[in-house]
Amino acid sequence: MKKTITLKVNGETFNLDVEDRRTLAEVIREDLHLLGTHMICEKGECGACTVIMDGLAINSCLVLAADANGKEIETIEGLAQGFELHPIQKNFVEKGAVQCGMCTSGMIMTAKAFLQKKPHPDEEEVRHAIAGNFCRCTGYVRIVDAVLSSASELKES
Amino acid sequence: MEHFKYVGKSVPRVDANVKVTGEARYTVDIAFPNMLWGKLLRSPLAHARILHIDTSKAEKLPGVKAVITGKDTPFTYGVTHMDQKPLHMNKVRHVGDAIAAVAAVDEETAQEAVELIKVDYEELPAVFHPLDAMLPGAPVIHEGVEGNVAARPSYENGDVEKAFAESDYVFEDTFETPPIAHVCPEPHVCVAKWDHSGKLTFYVSSQMPSLARTHFANFLKMPESRIRVITNYVGGAFGSKTLSRFPIEFASVILSRKTGRPVKFQHTREEEFHYSTLQFRFVITVKTGINKDGIITGRHFKAICECGGYVSHGASITSVAGALQGVLYRYKNYKYDGYAVYTNVPYGGAWRGLGNPPVHFAGEAQLNMIAAEIGVDPLELRLTNATHAGDTSATGALVRSCGLSKCLEKVAEEIGWKEKRTNPRPNHGLGIACGVHFTGIRLPTMPDTDFAEAKIMVNDDGSVNLTTSCVDLGQGSNTVLTQIAAEVLGIDMDRINTIYGDTETCPMEWGTRASRVTAIGGMAVKKASENARDQILRAAGEKLEINPDDLELKDNKVLVKGNPSIHMSISEVARFNRYRENGQAIMATNHWDAPSHGNISSAFSFGAKAIEVEVDPGTGRTKVLRVVVANDLGRAINPAGACGQIEGGVHMGLGMASTEEIMLNEKGGMANNQFLDYRVLTPLDMPPITPILVETNDPVGAFGAKGIGEMALIGTPDAFVSAVHAAAGVWIRKLPVTPEKVLLAMKAKK
Ligand code: FES
Ligand code: FES
After folding, report:
1. How confident is the model over B625-671, as pLDDT tens digits?
2. Do A11 and A55 fall into the same domain?
3. CA-wise closest residue to B536 among B499, B467, B584, B493
């Protein structure tokens, strides 16, 4: 069955007719063409599809689009201001936290929601925050590093 | 040391910005408005004769556009043995073997149609372990291959039996490593699209787009010019996207031709875990003769590789791992017997390290067992026997550069080997291991070459388009290749546009595989850049009326050596050269075949790992406290990138050591096929990693570079089991080292 929903994504409002069994991740990728939200497992086990919904980092493959009706959603595409990268993005670039890039959007969105709640984390807390985000390439070393240096930068600004 | 501006600098990746913004496009992202989705019907049985296939119901399902079977895909393929078919009509040899394929308007319809295909089977007895498959009377999986041994690669140098007879000690131990998945973040995926000019465009997540074109040109009997293979950013590959062809690729190509519409196939995560080729199971027996002074007198490896239903890379890997093992130490007597064995499990393929991680595991773990047994320091034992530059290995390979001893000394020093072993803490232990890997490889079944190609075009504004034959899989090749071109041409990296992954615009390539891109792909880029540099200097010399030998390229300019006040920008030179009478483009290509003089590889990278663990005697759980890695990578073109490879390699290596294992049920079906039950290590499992880069300036590779991607992993499980032994007093000979195995072994010992 189709449902009409309203999503506010990266500040823009969309009215969409969606099948009620479709997930938010599918709608973000297929209907809104925001392909920066990646999917690796499609069942809530890898964190690649993480977006921020009403301030909380969620696995968008686990949320039905219909249940996101009326919510505010932030995807990776909403982070940079024009050509100016968000500090977390900048740190991922500078620290070498990106290899293949498939986990990157999910890592950055998880980190953003986390740092909003916990601006002064230690390394252990960062590791816990991204524990649900799978990465096959980096061993997480530089990702943890990038999140930690983002924290100190965001704190200063 | 020479002074470089870009080479040796930790620069950010050239593709980092488009990856952190989500703009980078992968093959999984490709969609066309009229695109169809494909699905495969896979065998539910591990070994069966196919009696009848009925696709009529599936064909009638609304939304289904075409259904194909083996009749439509009359191709035979394989890596060394041509024993594979895209869709099987007569027999299936493992659960998941493909039988039919459907193209439909969406994924759900395609899946529904697949379930409507009816297949009658006659089930045959199946076998799920190579040792069982080798027993007399075991089921025959391929007609004519009795005993299921498909290949018997071997090496022999000297007389191991005589050496054993004369040795102070002889040890023999058997080890086993399980099948492991690559777990590519981007699964195997492709889209085939025919147009009405009869041209095929094939989008595929691949490490070897050129080879895909060659293969399909051969299968379809078409000129290569009518096939365009495009590879976008690749979301990880780790060997699984190299020489192997996959049923989904054939199915998309044939179904697209049949329907006249683009057809996309993408492995589900479950398919990806089991059917995207695996690291093969190995059962390895090592017999070692050694004298009291620690000198190894002879070594005999018997390595049984479980290919699965098809040989795939099994024969080549079993061979290569034997050749490489012979390069690690100064073996006076060396024997290697490889067996590539068919069983009814999903077949394997190239997995980071090409069989070298399992064979190293056996050799290195046993060396540590011997050290403990005869009471010598495992570090000293290795230093006593280590290969050095200038050595020719027992397997005939000339080692031109070698930092093996230095790597061993460095990791020992960094982890505090001597002190910690003198004052051991309870339940804590240290382990050490070392290894060798190739930089590029010549496989006996492929043309005898190890080449890469590159093309440089200088634009009017002095910027450069670099077209390369190498694919950036995430390892960062585009960045190091850009650094190399920038270094030679004296121009800024952001003025170089590095283009790859399109057979229509890029030169031919021999694959982003075998840890070969930086050294060999880099050399093609270096030589093409040198050629372009010479053209620039010649043209500038003409214009300035100065001998080109007195000119140099620096900071985007041509300068007079010793008199930098006279200069021309590269843009001025390019425009002068192009727009004068009889103008010319500044353009250069290079084909570089890394000389290996009859060896399997032109260069060997070495490395060592030291690991510290703590084992909980109550639970058997191992906590890794620290990993120190030293890698002889010839030269680090991008040190941060190289360290990233080491960190990722250690992550995968610790997974192989402690958690990762593909499991099958008693009927050969998938027992674990998702992240919840196939445990990849999380950020919480990972210890601090200290990478140390050892530079030996190899005479063959670009700027002295050798490979690192695979060596980064090799030795991790070996050092891990040895650390567990030091902490808990037990040897685990079968990976992964789970808490249960440790606990059981500790109990058995008491
Ligand atoms: S794709 Fe959503 S958690 Fe893996
Ligand atoms: S960078 Fe490849 S999965 Fe994380």
Report:
1. 999 999 999 999 999 999 999 999 999 999 999 999 999 999 999 99
2. yes
3. B584
Q: Quote the minimal CA–CA distance from A8 to chain B in Å.
A: 19
Q: Return the H-helix or E-strand segment holding A93.
A: helix A87-94
Structure tokens at A111: 């980190």
- Looking at the structure of chain A, the number of domains it has is 2
Q: Residue B287 has which token pair?
A: 């017999």
Does the ipTM exceed 0.90? Answer: yes
**What is the CATH classification number for the domain harbouring A54?**
3.10.20.30
Residue partners of A29: CB distance under 8 A and separation at least 6: A35, A37, A39
pLDDT for residue B496: 98
Its sign, for the CA torsion A108, A114, A119, A120, is negative
Q: Please give the domain boundaries of chain B with CATH numbers for all domains.
A: 27-124+184-237+241-275 (3.90.1170.50), 145-183+277-381 (3.30.365.10), 404-442+602-750 (3.30.365.10), 451-593 (3.30.365.10)
State whether A41 and A103 are in the same domain.
no
Q: Is there a contact between B365 and B722 (Cβ–Cβ < 8 Å)?
A: yes
SS3 category, A41: coil
The boundaries of the domain holding residue A91 are: 87-156
- Among A37, A130, A142, select the one facing B22 at the smallest CB separation: A37
Name every chain B residue with its beta carbon within 8 A of the beta carbon of A135. Answer: 185
Cβ–Cβ contacts within 10 Å for residue B564, how many? 12
Q: Is A77 on the interface with B (CB under 8 A)?
A: yes
Per-residue pLDDT at B512 exceeds 70: yes
**Looking at the DSSP assignment, which residues form a beta bridge with residue B586?**
none
Chain A residues close to B641, C-beta within 8 Å: 96
Q: Does A144 touch chain B (CB under 8 A)?
A: yes
Query: Which of B51-55, B446-450, B599-603, B705-709 bottoms out in mean pLDDT, i.e. has the lowest?
Result: B446-450
Residue A19 touches chain B, beta carbons under 8 Å: no
If you ran DSSP here, which 8-state letter would residue B185 be given? S
Write out the two tokens for B688.
């601090």
CB half-sphere exposure, B158, CA atoms < 13 A = 21
Is omega for the bond preceding B736 within 30 degrees of 0, making it cis? yes
CA of B732 relative to ligand 1 center, distance in Å: 34
* A6 and A32 housed in the same domain: yes
